[in-house]
Amino acid sequence: KQEVTQIPAALSVPEGENLVLNCSFTDSAIYNLQWFRQDPGKGLTSLLLIQSSQREQTSGRLNASLDKSSGRSTLYIAASQPGDSATYLCAVTRYSSGNTGKLIFGQGTTLQVKP
Amino acid sequence: ETGVTQTPRHLVMGMTNKKSLKCEQHLGHNAMYWYKQSAKKPLELMFVYNFKEQTENNSVPSRFSPECPNSSHLFLHLHTLQPEDSALYLCASSQKQGTSTDTQYFGPGTRLTVL
User: Fold this and answer.
1) Pick from A31, A45, A108: which is nearest to B2 by CB?
2) CB B44 within 8 Å of CB B36
């Protein structure tokens, strides 16, 4: 059974810091890994999607890496801003010939960036 | 705005009530999803529809009944719920379920409270 774990559960940093969020998964048979952002009381916004054949993806100040063999992904946020404050969710898409496209989520890391 | 809308945004209901949640996507996608987000638990997939056909039922109790009349609309009919069913219910859509580049777009959710 695929399990996704995110560490830390919460993180508070001063503005301007570079930071790393961690995600680990137990089964390397995945289609892809995605990072989402969720603001309080709102839905999820997709930030980055890394296909299983890729090692990393970048978008602006965000960089996500994927190491399938070790079951790990990291989300790197450069020069953090107060507007980055949110919960960040990692999810893997489970690979199965008869049941594709199922997202398995971690519990998230709640980030607070202080001005 | 992600192109996925949900109504109502908030719902309070008694255990004997019958209500429905509605989701509509304006993205021309073919797959739609219902997720449940409870406090202190990872986001859980409930149902998946691909081209109006249900392709996933994640062992959801029968008091939750989904309906997908077309690719743009998804409903979740609720009856005789329990207080532990109180949660944020999120709808999502994607172009096509089961591809390695498929990204899901989420609605803002319906916050459900069962008294």
Assistant:
1) A45
2) yes
A101 touches chain B (CB under 8 A): yes
> What single-letter amino acid sits at B12?
V
DSSP helix/strand/coil, B107: coil
Q: Could you tell me where the beta strands, DSSP code E, fall in chain A?
A: 4-7, 10-14, 19-25, 30-38, 44-51, 56-59, 62-67, 72-77, 86-94, 102-105, 109-114
The answer to whether residues A101 and B98 touch, using CB atoms and an 8 Å cutoff, is yes
Q: Are B42 and A4 in contact (CB < 8 Å)?
A: yes
The terminus-to-terminus CA distance of chain B in angstroms comes to: 31
Cα gap B112→B88, rounded to integer Å: 6
**CA separation for the pair A72, B3 (Å, rounded):** 31
A32 CB neighbours in chain B (<8 A) are 100-102
Record the tokens describing residue A89, joined without a space.
């969710």
Q: Quick check: B61 contacting A, CB < 8 Å?
A: no
Query: Taking chain A (115 residues) in consecutive chunks of 10 residues, what is each chunk's mean pLDDT?
Result: 92 96 92 92 90 94 96 97 97 68 89 96
- The pLDDT assigned to A96 comes to 57
CA distance A18 to chain B (A): 26
Distance in Å, alpha carbon of A113 to nearest chain B alpha carbon: 22
